[in-house]
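Table S5 (text form). Sequence records supplied for joint modeling of the two-component complex.
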Amino acid sequence: MGLLFLSKHLPVKESQPGVPKTPADIISTVEFNHTGELLATGDKGGRVVIFQREPESKNAPHSQGEYDVYSTFQSHEPEFDYLKSLEIEEKINKIKWLPQQNAAHSLLSTNDKTIKLWKITERDKRPEGYNLKDEEGKLKDLSTVTSLQVPVLKPMDLMVEVSPRRIFANGHTYHINSISVNSDCETYMSADDLRINLWHLAITDRSFNIVDIKPANMEDLTEVITASEFHPHHCNLFVYSSSKGSLRLCDMRAAALCDKHSKLFEEPEDPSNRSFFSEIISSVSDVKFSHSGRYMLTRDYLTVKVWDLNMEARPIETYQVHDYLRSKLCSLYENDCIFDKFECAWNGSDSVIMTGAYNNFFRMFDRNTKRDVTLEASRESSKPRAVLKPRRVCVGGKRRRDDISVDSLDFTKKILHTAWHPAENIIAIAATNNLYIFQDKVNSDMH
Amino acid sequence: MEFKLEAHRIVSISLGKIYNSRVQRGGIKLHKNLLVSLVLRSARQVYLSDPCPGLYLAGPAGTPAPPPQQPGEPAAVPPAGWGEPPPPAARAAWRETEPQPQPQPQPERTAVLDAQWVGGAEPATSVTRVGDALQGREADAAEAAWGSVEGPRGAAAAGAGDPVRGSDVFPEGPARRPSACPPGGEDQRGAAAASPGADCCCAPRPVVDESPAPPAVCPRKRGAAGVGGGPAGCQAPGATPLKKPRRNLEEQQPGRGEDDDPEDMETGNVANLISIFGSSFSGLLRKSPGGGREEEEGAESGPEAAEPGQICCDKPVLRDMNSWSTAIVAF
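The corresponding structure-token record, covering 778 residues in total, follows.
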């Protein structure tokens, strides 16, 4: 694959070794915007931090295209549902950028219950020379005004202003797990465990329910919705994944309520792999359409799979992320790691897929060459211009010098959230409360 | 055998997770609880389908015999699944009263027992009325198990002259524990502390006592012992698990994380949890939709279900989950 990555380590909040990490700083979502110029992260404390890529500068060729903090704001606050006596976490579950339509940028951020539309604007000029007000804004004494002037715009230090434009509340009884903006740029959907709602970006007081899998009797509940996404080109199509490992492609033209799927993508279970935890590890934690719209990528606990929209019977490709954990499922169940929801990502050309793992490892699979690599996001590997070294987990047998044994993996260091620049080989990796950005400095042959 | 042990362990871990989920920030996570319930179902099926009835019949009454399974197994709380008659409860009953078949609300007992049982993994707190008749470790374990329940139970017992409580009482929480056999003898079974270790038929008599003795006592008993089954059989196995609750608790600590103080875990709540759990997702427990549940449970109970009143089978347990169903729907 020939990946050489430069690294820039951007601690969203610098974590000192030895100091316990603040839970509120744990990054919970990472998302590039459509051009890749901006990168948004959300954390458990309800904050959103946006990074902007610096334009390449001739003066400092080595620091071309690095990401620096652009804006930080508090998106969600903890709330309390008095009716049910439940606390609503402020953790940002997902951020999705809207396609840019004017000078401002917009994004949707959501916690468990409420989605918010934020508008991000820049101000780099301000008017000066008012006739009636002085520089501080105080009214002038009219007797001192002897002539009229036309106020002019003068440059000022860049100021980024963020304001909440819409608040989409009270649409969900259960916990929201995904949001997805439609290609029509007018609507978006939000999915919770049992229902999916369709919203119009300009209307906050109502939404349409398009999928409802809640059984009449909750005792009959057997599966929940785990992720959903609109098709990148066809505004009538969307997919949602379930805890049983199936994907359902729905067409909104077919009916108002899309409970009946147009296509069901499901792979029969391999009976030889049956265990107590078979159902848990088959639950899909993330689903992503390819940029082309022809394929879907799903992540379950041990694998990533590529599905062709034209074939429902089974995925066309299956990649093992960390199959060595298969024999440790019971311990992973005990320490709750088996419930970790890993995300997955496509590169811009849909030729490489990426997903995270434990011990701050993340994996990339080249679909064309069938080669894969394991890399680590750590301080040691993130010195500027350091090249990431491939890592290996050894599972018994011969062990090479730098191999990590399965038993020494650190399961508290998990990479759940990763994002790939829409066009270039730049990836953002969230490792607990640190954000790593790696760039490929070599013109790779991946395209 | 290993499967059974493993299944036991998994069941206890799962119940602990469900309990903890109630106090987690952000409310109950439906997805995670659904997955845990699936695991519970699988473990339960394995446990119930694995026949080793004679395994825990052992030794003279009161002789704590180390469980054949696994001294080293930290979290393996013996009592396993749904249908297992909570040994502790049975034990408690024995201690306090003469063994008699009780037409107690089975489900509650089972649920309570199971709950207790999970709760029993908690560190021992000094316990109550149940203690005296217990022998050796059993007593300790029982106390441990009972301790945390003491409060609520006491209240319930105090108030309840009625040993027969509907399952609705169940989910109500500590204050309304079904007190088929309230320690202290309100129950008609009498407060005879006589206890006959001998009578530990934990299995057949799920005495509803909130203070189930060492949870581990003898789940399997149920099948093997039958009604009024050998006390000896009961006793011994019961004894063995004594160690487990404490150990289980300690072992589970690290795994659990957020549950920093086991002693605070009210077994009363756990009992509710069990009942809750039983009703929620019961569709998963069914082999066939609709009325399949009863059949399934009945089938699994098998010969154990000799008398309706004796065995804590799934049926009764699941029957009483109505209030939780309502809660789930509301949620």
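Note: DSSP finds 14 helices and no strands in chain B.
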